[in-house]
Design brief:
The protein is α+β, with helices and mostly antiparallel strands and 234 residues long. It folds into two domains: 33 residues, no CATH class; 149 residues, Nucleoside Triphosphate Pyrophosphohydrolase (Alpha-Beta Complex). It contains five helices and eleven strands; from the N terminus they run ααβββββββαβββααβ. Strands 7-4-9-8-11 form a five-stranded mixed sheet. A three-stranded antiparallel sheet has the order 1-2-3, with no helix packed on it. A three-stranded antiparallel sheet has the order 6-5-10.
C-alpha cells in the first residue's frame, strides 16, 4: 500500500515522490569514460593551443568531433588575513573586455607541476608570494568543445615577492586590487563579473569557508583529470 504521507506530498508537489527516491541514491560524481579512438588528427596548430579531430565508437556509432586541445591552466585565489581576494584586471581580446580575474596562467612548461606553475603565476602577475597553498577546486571550461581543465589554488600567508616582474602585451597595463570575498560574491550575483575562474573560485571559497575550509586538498594533490594523464593512442 502506498505511504499516505508520500501520497500527500506528491499531491502538493508532483516531484515529491521522485525527490524521496532520489535521496536514496549516492552523491553525484563525474564518471571517467575512457573511449578508444579509431583515429586522431591535428587539424590546426595554434600559438597557444591546437584543434584536434578524433573519431571514436560510442553507442554503436562512429562519431567524429573537433575540439580545442589545451595544455590546461591554473588560477590562484590569494586570500589575505582580512578575507580580501587579490584580483587583476586584464584585457581579453576575444570578448573585447578588461575583465576582473584571479591570477592565472597556462601549464605550458614541460614537466612543471601545477602547484609550481601556480606559484610562478601568482608572483609574475601580482608580485606576491604565499607560504600556505591548497587545492580549492577544479573545472573544465567548455567540455563540449575543449579539453581545457583549470585547477584553482587557495593561497594564504601572503607577502611581497622579492623580485618585481616586467609585464608586456596585454599584461603591460594590468592592475591589481584587493576586494573582500563577500564583495566578490555580490559582484558575481549581480552579473558584474563573469570570468569563469573568478566565479568558480570565489563561490567555492565562500562555500569552503562556511565549512571551516574542510574541503581543501593538499597542494600536491594528484590530477588524474588533466588531459596529460589520458591515453591518446589510437
Amino acid at each position: 500500500m502506498p505511504d499516505p504521507a508520500l501520497a500527500d506530498a506528491a499531491a502538493v508537489n508532483p516531484l515529491g515522490a521522485r525527490a524521496d527516491a532520489d535521496s536514496l541514491l549516492p552523491p553525484i560524481e563525474d564518471e571517467p569514460a575512457p573511449t578508444p579512438l579509431n583515429s586522431s588528427a591535428l587539424r590546426m596548430e595554434g600559438y597557444v593551443w591546437n584543434v584536434r579531430q578524433d573519431a571514436f565508437d560510442y553507442n554503436g556509432t562512429e562519431i567524429v568531433r573537433d575540439y580545442i586541445d589545451h595544455p590546461g591552466a591554473v588560477a590562484v585565489l590569494a586570500l589575505d588575513d582580512q578575507d580580501r581576494v587579490l584580483l587583476i584586471q586584464q584585457y581579453r581580446h576575444p570578448i573585447r573586455m578588461r575583465e576582473w580575474e584571479l591570477p592565472a596562467g597556462l601549464l605550458d612548461v614541460d614537466g612543471e607541476h601545477a602547484y609550481i606553475g601556480a606559484q610562478r603565476e601568482l608572483a609574475e602577475e601580482t608580485d606576491v608570494v604565499a607560504s600556505e597553498w591548497n587545492v580549492l577546486t577544479e573545472f573544465y571550461t567548455s567540455p563540449g568543445g575543449s579539453n581545457e581543465v583549470i585547477r584553482i589554488y587557495l593561497a594564504r600567508g601572503l607577502s611581497p615577492a622579492t623580485e618585481v616582474f616586467e609585464r608586456t602585451e596585454e599584461e603591460a597595463d594590468m592592475i591589481t586590487r584587493w576586494v573582500s570575498l563577500d564583495d566578490c560574491i555580490d559582484a558575481i550575483l549581480a552579473r558584474k563579473v563573469q570570468n569563469p575562474s573568478l566565479v568558480v573560485g570565489v563561490l567555492a571559497a565562500a562555500a569552503s569557508r562556511a565549512r571551516g575550509w574542510a574541503s581543501l586538498g593538499p597542494a600536491d594533490l594528484p590530477w588524474p583529470r588533466h588531459p596529460s594523464n589520458w591515453d591518446h593512442t589510437v
